[in-house]
Structure of HNH endonuclease:
Amino acid sequence: RLRGGLTEAGNLGSICVPWHQAKTHGDWTLEQPSPGSFVWTSPTGLVYHRRATPLLPDLAGLVDGE
């Protein structure tokens, strides 16, 4: 059974082991409405919006090693 859609590069998110356990085996839910944007919902219904921290600096402005 698929939960949350297919595994694709645009919907991957890295979380630590305790949070993965809470999501997988606890009553927390995790949604990713857009790449890098996460919505956690606690067992009591509280909602937390989080943005992913980039793993690499913005390289868009770099050309030829500048």
